[in-house]
Amino acid sequence: MTDAARTTATIERLGHQGDGIAPGPIYVPRTLPGERVTGVLEGQNMTDIRIEDPSEHRVQAPCRHYKSCGGCQLQHVSDEFVAQWKVEIVRNALISRKLETDFRPIQTSPTHSRRRATLTVKRTKKGAMAGFHGRASDVITAIPDCHLLAPELIAALPMAEDLALIGASRKAPLSVTITTSQAGLDVLVKNGKPLDGPLRIQLAQAVERHSLARLTWDDELLAMEQSPTQAFGGANVCPPPGAFLQATPEGESALVAAVREGVGDARRIVDLFAGAGTFSLPLAQTAEVHAVEGEREMMQALELGWRKAQGLKKVTTETRDLFRNPLLVEDLRQFGKVYDAVVIDPPRAGAEAQIAQLAKAKLPLISYVSCNPVTFARDAEVLVAAGYKLNWVQVVDQFRWSSHTELAASFSLT
After folding, report:
1. Is 215 exposed, middle or buried (0-12, 13-18, 19+ CB in 10 A)?
2. Residue 77 DSSP label
3. What positions carry a catalytic annotation?
4. Which of 9, 120, 184, 337 has the most neighbouring CB atoms within 10 Å?
């Protein structure tokens, strides 16, 4: 290809997905602001990229898989730049809503700390391969030296490949989600062969061979040698297969600490989108908690964990779809007679309907945990307009080297 067929561009900023953006706009992956680059334009995207003038913030990617693996977007960037960039994403989302607040120093999870991974695992002519897809590609990259995953997950790659040899078809790969637990590995497999007698026997043997705590095959619990519990505060909880869990123990600890500070000395707390008890059960060490969540199995796991624990305050549970059926003002004011703080940890869509009710009910303290700065800023604007003060924001980076940003924030009535 001649140089005449190549385009030169200067990167102005990073987008929310971590791509460099040049005027046009032109999207250039794995580049940095200020860099002059050349490449081939395909629509608005640049490929076959050559860095002509590298940024001072560019570093050598620590992982040898980075070039081919799509699991990380930002290993070419210094940690200091990524930290500042993620804080600025949240700050700019708030500024767009005319909001300002204090920012705590970002909390970043260390390398080799991810306790859950969803691998793509396929059979090959020589055996099987477990890994991640390449960037915008169907090609699977093996990741034996991944710098993200906990050592227990790296050690489990041969187990995932073994499951593919047993239960994957030649045409479709398996999706294998592996989660570390106190009792060993919790494994959820999707897209496997239909279960029959011989396959059940082979999979049961694999559970023993690899000392798995639990194996779920599509929607069927195939074996549970030990309950794959997670420690939430003073309780041990066995979440349902595939249930939401914070990505790293360090990230979870940072968020729990921020939520604790946000609710202060509250003695009775409403925990909305409570999951399996990430915040409810630690808070129950000093306060009574009413936990609300849309998935019944999560609520059952939380309640069982609480009942088996020692020394916790009372925890009650309610299964309720907070998107379609948020707690109404009259519900929250009824809680307000005895509850003095709210914890809310919604999915990426935020909690527009529930926030509207919270804004009217005016409980004294709100701790908000978010995985989407844009919807968080939208919800924060509603609360501030209703008389709340946004006291501070704590950015938490537990998805290291990705564009994903999480935060916890404290609101109080002024």
Report:
1. buried
2. B
3. 371
4. 9
